[in-house]
Amino acid sequence: MTVPLRPVSAVNALADALRGRVLSGEISPGTSLPEQELSALYGVARPTVREALAVLVHEGLLRRERHRSAQVVEVTVADLDDLMFVRRPLEDLMASTLAGRRVAEADAALGRMAALPAEAPWSEMVAEHMALHQALVVAVGSPRLERLYGSLAAETRLGLVRLRAVYPDREVLVAEHRELLDAIGKGSPEEARRAVAAHLDHGWGE
Q1: Beta-bridge partners for 70
Q2: Cross-referenced Pfam families, in alphabetical order (predicted)?
Q3: For a disulfide at 167, which of 150, 173, 185, 206, Cβ 3.0-4.6 Å?
Q4: Residue pLDDT, tens place only, 92-130
């Protein structure tokens, strides 16, 4: 029996387009996104724009105040420092638990990251980067750890936009993640924890 494919809705298509532009840094932090301008630019009705923006507000990529246009969330250096302060103990738990194990889903995300062409939007690197780290957390098998980590996803993704300037050569980012997965997969708990700590410290303070 053939199941017909459902077409992507205009809301989802617009949300995808805007998400990609935000996560590639094309739309800068703090930028306002007026509904009328987006409606004219993309040729869709304002209710469609409103719903697409609501999707991104829910994801934490945009914020919206009453009677004001939605804006891209700004993640400051202080925000990133605090984000790392909270992420470190979570990823430390992940590293000590997974030491000596390979996580197939993380390896697959690394493979997709490595296969991206040089001209691919940075948002695609962000997506695979997030998929890799999420796969490691999920592999731990703790729903609470996964839930806590997921609550940091929006700020983490926005923080990754900053890394575009730190990694003009994307192969360096791929190599660092390959080394990370090797350290976790082959190392002792202490070695895995040290590798994760070093990985988190590198780049974010730039």
Answers
A1: 33
A2: FCD, GntR
A3: 173
A4: 999 999 999 999 999 999 999 999 998 999 999 999 999
